[in-house]
Write a structure and sequence with these properties.
Layout: E1 4-6, H1 21-24, E2 39-41, H2 42-79, H3 82-85, H4 92-106, H5 108-118, H6 120-139, H7 144-158, H8 161-170, H9 178-186, H10 188-203, H11 212-234, H12 247-260, H13 271-274, H14 281-308, H15 315-320, H16 323-342, H17 347-366, H18 372-386, H19 388-399, H20 404-419, H21 421-428, H22 438-473
Antiparallel strand pairs: 1-2
Length: 500
């Protein structure tokens, strides 16, 4: 028999009517945009989620794949001699990465603020067209100075993209569904590394008047622009505008988000609520974690090719040998995200990924250059652990922010801070430490160890705080038991429960 749900049911063994301020501290706030008594079956919910997945995730996957390709190809280009062809100065590669991140990291918050203000239907395709064009301009660069200008502009267009995608998904999916959906596009980052390695393997063997790295950037940039145009017309930008949903399904979609996602849906942008997370001390712990895990993520995306060069392979083979570690990284990310959603748990899954990075860095730093097999295995550990935190981390902090404005700020600012990891990695993985990079790997290991301590500490606090709240109210609630529609004042509400 089908189980029938209501948008505010399943809060406690008692009925929803029992949730009154003098008993639990819970204050229900109605929404003019949704019928608070929408009843729907489990089958209807599953059918709706399948429709959303079918119409949204494939586009999100390809959008982020092109984004990752345009960022990862610089490592392949370096291995093909781009730095020599364009007369890069000493440590010019590190300087180029740093310049890119001045705009890429620095404009993350304004980028997602723009998305929150004008809507993702304009910003997401616009960002893609911009960075696709810059990737093609990169192929036309004639010297180091022109590369710096192009990379600076590339960062402008890429800055708000990933954060905008995450915010976009939170308007369609509940907190318990976000991990797997964010993983659906974050898995593109290691997959892009694998695909870019394969593409570089083929392109770098072509006989052409253009350099191999120039062809690589032209191909990837052109496909990005073409897909951006397609996305502008095909991707649904809200549940209300989704033509593939019936009126009944739109009502269910709004009710689901109010139950386990937002305090209200389709709200107007308010600056005062946008910056509200700055008043929460836990935001600053998340900020430190973001900076730390961002170091490992940028090491994997920008320097894996250079790390594998220690094995002494040719340029073509070096790029080919990046494929397997990146592919394993994508697989582990997907499996970890599935497990995280399945058990509604974030902290321990995130901690396990950080442990993999720490072990991988320790192995690479300690093994001699002649130990090819174990060292290559260590690169698998790094990619398996370095890419997974992005997905789990953003799902974690988004699940603890019921306001749409607050979620937009959090994802923008924390994405910005994670991207600052490049400032660290670019300035420690210098040519003078090649080919073993012992000091850079040791620094990376230490930074990830700090992230591990912060993650476990924050999770412990959330666990204990939930227990304290339950004890005060005489209930045994988890985050899923309290409808987010009721939590207008967020953690200040006694009925708030952390999602950890």
């Amino acid at each position: 028999m089908s189980s029938v749900r209501k948008s505010q049911d399943n809060v406690s063994p008692s009925s929803q009517d029992d949730l009154v301020p003098n008993k639990t501290g819970l204050t229900l706030v109605g929404s003019s945009e949704v019928n608070n008594n929408v009843a729907y079956t489990e089958e209807e919910k599953k059918a709706l989620v399948r429709k959303l997945d079918w119409h949204i995730l494939p586009f999100i996957f390809w959008c982020y794949l092109f984004n990752s390709l345009d960022r990862n190809n610089i490592s392949n280009a370096k291995s093909d001699g781009m730095t020599i062809d364009l007369n890069f100065p000493a440590n010019g590669y590190a300087t180029m990465l740093t310049v890119f991140n001045v705009t890429f990291a620095g404009l993350g918050v304004p980028g997602v603020m723009l998305t929150r203000f004008v809507g993702p239907r304009w910003t997401i395709p616009g960002y893609m067209i911009g960075w696709g064009a810059m990737a093609m301009f990169n192929a036309a660069c004639k010297n180091f100075a022109s590369v710096l200008v192009v990379r600076l502009l590339l960062g402008v267009f890429e800055a708000g993209f990933a954060a905008s995608l995450i915010f976009y998904l939170t308007t369609f999916y509940t907190r318990g569904e976000l991990g797997g959906r964010i993983a659906a596009f974050y898995s593109c980052q290691p997959l892009a590394g694998a695909f870019s390695g394969l593409l570089a393997y083929g392109v770098f063997q072509m006989d052409s008047a253009l350099k191999g790295w120039q062809i690589l950037m032209l191909i990837e940039g052109a496909f990005t622009v073409a897909f951006a145009v397609l996305t502008a017309f095909m991707l649904p930008w809200s549940t209300d505008s989704a033509k593939f949903l019936s009126d009944r399904e739109k009502e269910i979609a709004r009710a689901r988000i109010l139950k386990d996602g937002s305090t209200a849906t389709n709200t107007k942008f308010k600056p005062e609520t946008f910056f509200q997370p700055l008043k929460d001390w836990k935001f600053y712990i998340f900020a430190l974690i973001a900076i730390c895990y961002g170091v490992a993520a940028t090491v994997a995306s920008n320097f894996l090719t250079q790390i594998i060069e220690r094995f002494g392979y040719s340029t073509v083979k070096t790029n080919l040998y990046t494929v397997a570690p990146y592919a394993c990284g994508a697989l582990v990310l997907a499996l970890t995200a599935w497990s995280s959603d399945r058990f509604r748990e974030r902290g321990l899954h995130l901690a396990s990924a950080l442990v993999l990075v720490i072990i991988g860095c320790l192995l690479l730093a300690c093994l001699p250059a002649s130990s090819t097999g174990p060292a290559y295995f260590a690169t698998f550990l790094i990619t398996m652990g370095a890419y997974t935190p992005s997905c789990l981390f953003h799902t974690w902090h988004q699940c603890n922010e019921p306001s749409e404005d607050g979620r937009a700020f959090r994802v923008g600012m924390l994405t910005f801070l994670a991207n600052t990891g490049t400032f660290v990695s670019a300035n420690i993985f210098l040519d003078k430490w090649a080919p073993r990079y012992v000091i850079p790997l040791a620094v990376t290991c230490g930074v990830e160890a700090l992230a591990l301590v912060l993650v476990l500490g924050l999770r412990m606090y959330m666990t204990l705080d939930n227990r304290r709240r339950n004890k005060r109210q005489g209930v045994n609630w988890q985050s899923k038991d309290v409808p987010t529609e009721a939590l207008v004042d967020g953690p200040a509400n006694p009925s708030f429960r952390h999602f950890y």
